[in-house]
């Protein structure tokens, strides 16, 4: 182990790839759940368009605002997934950026056009900030927990 580091880092592409895929799956699953919950308020149906279509993320009407709300709530719940899947404060931003870059590419393919709406960029930027800050906070709390070294119940 090199001096000055708490843990040694090992390059494990299989682990990183599986973490990215897991985060992507949880992100879309939770987003679908939040869309179903928020759209049930107005009894409007949610579809795949709500996830990938640029025009559905807007502030013009209640349906668009509910979609925006679902995206922001999803950022908060996905930060909890960072805690269980990534578990490292230093890697939270990397995984959030990877997740949103993949989301950008999927949206680009789905729409056939690069995103050009300000609301889509605004919602995703706020989502990145929320998810990163909360994920780092949660991971930092678990990393900073005291490790018992000696005590009455220490089993060596």
What's the end-to-end separation, in Å?
22 Å
What percentage of residues falls in helices of 4 or more residues? 55-70%
Please state the average pLDDT score. Answer: 88
Shape, please?
Answer: elongated
Total beta-strand segments: 0
Low-confidence stretches: none
- % residues in beta strands: under 5%
What class do helices, strands and sheet pairing give?
A: mainly alpha
Account of the protein in words:
It contains 5 helices and no strands. With 156 residues, the chain is an all-alpha fold. Helix 1 runs antiparallel to helix 3 (62-85).
What brief labels describe this structure?
single chain; mainly alpha; elongated
Secondary-structure blueprint:
Elements: H1 13-39, H2 48-52, H3 62-85, H4 92-111, H5 118-143
Helix pairs in contact: 1-3, 1-4, 3-5, 4-5
Quick recap of the structure?
By secondary structure, this protein is an all-alpha fold. It has helices at 13-39, 48-52, 62-85, 92-111, 118-143.
